[in-house]
């Protein structure tokens, strides 16, 4: 049997690394971390305090999606401390989102697209909005 200790990282493909880095660093506020000297372009980010990471990989292949937010499509989720604060931050940054404060999942969710149309879910333990 395999014993799991958590998710180490999620990798996303991007076409324009500088545009993606601007989004993840300046808009979402993630901290870029050191990345090994691979022979392809990319960037790594720390997510939270538990050692989880987000890896961006430049790729021109056909794995990139074209459509709008579809929550059944591949995505990754980041747990946030406050649903209300996440909504306020996204509003200040001008990031369009799909808000689901009373989602059927049992916790509030917010969905956004990055510049390469990767879907990101932000969710909170509970709804703390008004």
Which homologous superfamily in CATH is the superfamily of the largest domain? 2,3-Dihydroxybiphenyl 1,2-Dioxygenase, domain 1
As a whole number of angstroms, the C-alpha radius of gyration is 15 Å
String of helices and strands: EHEEEEHEEE
Strands side by side in the biggest sheet: 1-4-3-2
Please state roughly what percent of the residues sit in beta strands, choosing from under 5%, 5-15%, 15-25%, 25-35%, 35-45% or over 45%.
25-35%
Count of domain modules: 2
Report what the structure shows.
With 130 residues, this protein is of the alpha/beta class. It has 2 domains: 7-60, 2,3-Dihydroxybiphenyl 1,2-Dioxygenase, domain 1 (Roll); 67-130, Roll (2,3-Dihydroxybiphenyl 1,2-Dioxygenase, domain 1). 17% of the residues lie in helices and 32% in strands. The strands form 2 sheets. Strands 1-4-3-2 form a 4-stranded mixed sheet, with helices on one face. A 4-stranded mixed sheet has the order 5-8-7-6, covered by helices on one side. It is globular, with a radius of gyration of 15 Å. The model has no long low-confidence stretch (mean pLDDT 91).
